[in-house]
């Protein structure tokens, strides 16, 4: 498990560090819609589940957001500030259906 902050791109360019997916990954510092790159070098698709905090006006839990990452792909998705959990220092919780051959990075 690791907590990662978005990496900042500059006009001069920047090397991107991809992190190995692990159980309990979290993302900090999301204050606006922010792109996330997921690389699935495996032979099967992987599901990324983002735990969405909070409830509806009827007291029902908000649904989690799921992304299916195709096998052998580079997949870009957007993390929203609404995914940040105020009860967990405004971190965004990520859950992977599998972590083998999966890496990721968030780019600000």
Description:
This protein has strands spanning 3-4, 19-20, 26-27, 34-40, 46-51, 65-69, 73-79, 92-96, 102-106. The chain has 108 residues and is mainly β. The strands form 2 sheets. The protein has a 5-stranded mixed β-sheet, with no helix packed on it. Strands 2-9-4-7 form a 4-stranded antiparallel β-sheet, with no helix packed on it. It is globular. Helix content is 0%, strand content 38%. The mean pLDDT is 96. The protein contains no helices and 9 strands.
Can you give me a brief rundown of this structure?
Helix content is 0%, strand content 38%. The protein has 108 residues and is mostly beta strands.
Helix and strand sequence: EEEEEEEEE
Structural class: mainly beta
Look at the structure and give the mean pLDDT. Answer: 96
Task: Outline the biggest β-sheet.
Answer: 5 strands, mixed
Outline, from the CA principal axes?
A: globular
- Low-pLDDT stretches are none
Strand arrangement within the widest β-sheet reads 1-3-8-5-6
User: How much helix is in the residues?
Assistant: under 10%
Tell me the distance between the termini.
21 Å
Percentage beta strand: 35-45%
Please count the beta strands (DSSP E, at least 2 residues each).
Answer: 9
Number of helices: 0
Q: Using only CA atoms, what is the Rg?
A: 14 Å
